[in-house]
Design brief:
Radius of gyration: 25 Å
Order of helices and strands: HHEEEEEEEEEEE
Distance between the termini: 100 Å
Shape: extended
Structural class: mainly beta
Length: 183
């Protein structure tokens, strides 16, 4: 048994060294942010899940955002309404209201968007999806992040203290003005 472990150890080490990705791969992939709702808790609503890829770019550059909507419905119509943050400019020919026909063969729908902004920070493209299946229609909302430049520094949160009961208390600055009313 010990001989087997001694013989296999160098082989596994060599295989592990060969499996290490190159440094160039890490740099390229760090500019692409991905996310999905598949497998995460969702409130009851439209039977739609979303997966996205969003390219992080500098201010003034165009970001590629690829969104895939997946449904478990076998038939019906999916309506998608896109809303862009004020700081984002839609650089593609993508319409803001899209309609897709759901069939048993077609359950994945791709939306490719190109967007830019002159303002650094985290911006969002919001999707309101609606599945119409005859008499019933259900809605689900999503937000796709668009990464532009360096993120803005986070604002300092208010001071939080604990009451004797253990409840959190937020302490904030306030200004009061008192006026005397003559009668």
């Amino acid at each position: 048994m010990k001989k087997t472990k001694l013989l296999l150890a160098p082989l596994l080490i060599v295989m592990g060294l060969n499996a290490k990705p190159s440094e160039d791969t890490k740099v390229e992939n760090s500019n692409i942010k991905t996310g999905t709702t598949i497998g995460h808790y969702q409130k009851p609503g439209a039977p739609i899940d979303m997966t996205y890829n969003s390219t992080k770019v500098n201010a003034g550059e165009v970001s590629d955002i690829n969104i895939t909507l997946t449904t478990t419905a076998n038939s019906g119509t999916m309506n998608v309404s896109l809303t862009f943050d004020e700081a984002i400019k839609n650089e593609s020919n993508t319409e803001e209201n899209l309609t897709f026909e759901i069939t048993p063969e077609q359950k994945n729908f791709t939306i490719n968007i190109q967007a830019s902004s002159e303002i650094d920070g985290l911006h969002y493209i919001r999707l309101l999806t609606k599945v119409d299946r005859g008499t019933a229609s259900k809605l689900r909302a999503f937000a796709v992040p668009v990464y532009i430049g360096e993120p803005k520094p986070k604002a300092k949160s208010a001071n939080i203290m604990k009451a004797m009961s253990g409840e959190n208390i937020s302490v904030s600055k306030a200004v009061e003005t008192i006026e005397v009313i003559d009668e």
